[in-house]
Design brief:
Blueprint: E1 3-10, H1 14-25, E2 31-35, E3 40-47, E4 50-57, H2 63-71, E5 74-81, H3 85-94, E6 105-107, E7 111-116, E8 126-131
Parallel strand pairs: 1-4, 5-8
Antiparallel strand pairs: 1-5, 2-3, 3-4, 6-7, 7-8
The structure holds carboxymethyldethia coenzyme *A.
Length: about 130
């Protein structure tokens, strides 16, 4: 793994949270994007080398809706940049981690992504991501 690429924060209302976090960071999000496959609306703030992603559920089946129902708003996942997601998935599977997909999926912000189950990582949802070139 290379570095923290972004931290994902689950929010109830992304419009309101965009305003709040824009005030906090002193800048607007550089991107807003709907990811149909994950049932989320997202926005991204650039923070030096790292990013903050806000996530709002677009339907009640979304992982974000379930998370907010159970735990409330807050930090949802930490994403790590990898240079070869296929090799990293294989390595982590060999190490005994539970991958949530057998193949990388297309995620927000032009990335191939794969999640690890939080039950196998001390309650933290980890995302691997690799930029699509
Ligand atoms: N962080 C820590 N724990 C989490 C969690 C999270 N983000 N999401 C769920 N959990 C915990 C739950 O609290 C629950 O724990 P308990 O058994 O102790 O109650 C357990 O995991 C199971 O949760 P659940 O609500 O029953 O939900 P599911 O098992 O149906 O799904 C998970 C959980 C992690 C497999 C699912 O949320 C998932 O596949 N996540 C990956 C995809 C995702 O999060 N997409 C949205 C973001 C997309 C993007 O970044 O673009």
């Amino acid at each position: 793994m290379l570095k923290i690429e972004h931290i994902g924060i689950a929010v109830k209302n992304i419009e309101q949270s965009n305003v709040l976090f824009s005030k906090l960071f002193g800048k607007a999000p550089y991107k807003s994007e709907k990811v149909e496959s994950e049932n989320v609306s997202t926005s991204f703030f650039m923070m030096g080398e790292n990013k903050i992603e806000l996530l709002e559920a677009t339907n009640p089946d979304s992982a974000i809706a379930k998370f907010i129902d159970k735990k409330g708003e807050g930090i949802h996942h930490i994403a790590f940049e990898v240079s070869d997601i296929y090799a990293e998935m294989k390595r982590l599977e060999m190490e005994g981690f539970t991958l949530l997909s057998t193949e990388p999926k297309k995620g927000a912000d032009n990335k191939l992504i794969c999640f690890l189950h939080p039950k196998a990582t001390n309650g933290v949802l980890i995302e691997l991501c690799q930029e699509i070139k």
